[in-house]
Amino acid sequence: MKNSYDVVVVGGAVIGSAVAYYLSANPDFDGSILVIEKDPTYAKASTSLSSSSIRTQFSNPINVRISQYGSEVIRNFADMMQVGDDRPDLGFQSGGYLFLANRPQQVQTLRENHKAQISCGADVLLLNRDELANAFPHLNVADIELASYGRSGEGWFNNTGLMYGFRNKARSLGVDYVADEVVGIGRQGSRVTSVALKSGTTVGAGTIVNCSGPRAALTARMAGLDIPVEPRKRTLFVFDCADTPEGTANINDGRLPLMIDPSGVFCRPEGRFFLTGCPPVEDPTSDWDDFEPRYEEFEEIIWPALAERSPKFEAIKVVNQWAGHYDYNTLDQNLIVGRHPEVRNFLFANGFSGHGLQQGPATGRGVSELIIYNEYRTLDLTEVGYERVLNNRPFIERAVI
Fold first, then answer.
1. Same domain, 348 and 220
2. DSSP string, 109-136
3. Could you give the CA distance from residue 251 to residue 234 in angstroms, rounded to a whole number?
4. How far apart are CA 243 and CA 283, in angstroms?
5. Residues 177 and 52 in one domain
6. Residue 375 and residue 268 share a domain
7. Which residues of 70-85 are buried (b: 16+ CB within 10 A; e: fewer)?
8. Residues 201, 205, 209, 215: is their CA dihedral positive or negative?
9. CATH number of the structural domain spanning residue 239
10. Of the four, 64, 81, 117, 394, which is 20 to 30 A from 70 by CA?
11. CATH number of the domain that 43 lies in?
12. For 277, left (φ over 0), alpha (ψ -120 to 50), or beta?
């Protein structure tokens, strides 16, 4: 590790490593890059504990396009991230997403979202009740008024594979990684100048990028800044199914999608099992180190909803569970990406609210363009910039799970 770097990235999971990769892979950038990660095992990183999915079914065109690029990267990941003979395979499962609606407001939202998705070229279908019953005969659809199904560009994949692919490629391109914790940020007027590490070292920084996930607000405060991001706990369960419906679909070679029930409960295949979760009834800020699962959610919320939706889900048994943290943007549940308008060499890549994996590639590329060119060259992320935080102007995403 050197005494100073042109770019210091705080947080080395998928977002931080994507930023490091896109910077180091760009021939127009020849600066030095340091990534600081407090937990090199990534055991509690939001990346590692996520449901590892990607979808284009959002309400805002910018989020659709962000995920379309993410899907492209996932498809080409082995070629992009090859290091020597290592070609990382993300094991992408193209199951799609299936949103179900049984109330007028939900139906209206699906129709409006569909218009935004189609305008971006997303491969999404609206299904009426009969079409839904024919496509997925295991479902009880008597109450369903409309469904939205992603035929391509959606599915699930290896979450840590994405992170380590970016990380290993970045390191091969000369990026330095250090296992340490940022405990202070030096600032002189309208510029940040350095980071102080828990080990006692101080490292000079030409630019600092905040990629610290649920701890984003802590990092920002060290620079005298603020961001409306806090940890919110989400519990995931893996269950076995006595009579699995996987393979019964009449589309997509029998494979089931990630289904989002009108109740908010979701589930998808996970190998021979299923992965499921739900929005919590109460959603307070979590302690930074609280990873205790909310065990009661399965019996009280998830199982009743799944059993009502399909007789195939009446006999199921939990085989594993864990809790992770969303880096929850309390303003509008949308990513915050870009420079601080006054402290211009401090950049945010935060507040993904559960969508960080799928939005990581476009975010990494966008942040790298701001650093190198001082403008976006590919996908314009201005709409999700920090200015809306200062102006208290929410940019609402209606399709948050």
1. yes
2. HHHHHHHHHHHTT--EEEE-HHHHHHH-
3. 31
4. 33
5. yes
6. no
7. bbebbeebeebbeeee
8. positive
9. 3.30.9.10
10. 394
11. 3.50.50.60
12. beta
SS (H, E, C) 238-277: EEEECCCCCCCCCCHHHCCCEEECCCCCEEEEECCEEEEE
Cβ proximity of 17 and 37 under 8 Å = no
Location of structure tokens 């600081």: 36
Q: Do 225 and 264 contact (CB within 8 A), yes or no?
A: no
**Mutual orientation of helices 159-172 and 14-25 as an angle, nearest 10°?**
40
* 207 within some domain: yes
Radius of gyration for the chain, computed over Cα atoms and rounded to the nearest angstrom? 21
**CA distances from residue 253 to 93, 151, 266 in whole angstroms, order as listed:** 12, 12, 21
Residue 255's CB is within 10 A of a number of other CB atoms, namely 17
Q: Are residues 341 and 370 in the same domain?
A: yes
> Residue 379's domain spans which residues?
4-69+159-230+331-390
Please state the three-class secondary structure of 129-148 as a single string.
HHHHHHHCCCCCCCCCCEEE
3-state secondary structure of 235: strand
Q: What is the pLDDT along the chain (401 residues), one digit of tens a residue?
A: 999 999 999 999 999 999 999 999 999 999 999 999 999 999 999 999 999 999 999 999 999 999 999 999 999 999 999 999 999 999 999 999 999 999 999 999 999 999 999 999 999 999 999 999 999 999 999 999 999 999 999 999 999 999 999 999 999 999 999 999 999 999 999 999 999 999 999 999 999 999 999 999 999 999 999 999 999 999 999 999 999 999 999 999 999 999 999 999 999 999 999 999 999 999 999 999 999 999 999 999 999 999 999 999 999 999 999 999 999 999 999 999 999 999 999 999 999 999 999 999 999 999 999 999 999 999 999 999 999 999 999 998 876 76
298, 323, 348: which is the final residue of a domain? 323
Tell me the sheet residues that pair with 324.
Answer: 234
Identity at 229, one-letter amino acid code? V
Q: Where are the beta strands (DSSP E) in 154-228?
A: 155-156, 176-179, 182-188, 191-197, 202-210
Question: Could you give the CA distance from residue 84 to residue 172 in angstroms, rounded to a whole number?
Answer: 9
- Strands laid side by side in the 229-241 sheet: 124-127, 146-150, 97-101, 258-260, 266-270, 273-277, 229-241, 316-329
Vertex 255 angle, CA 252 and 256, to 5°: 110
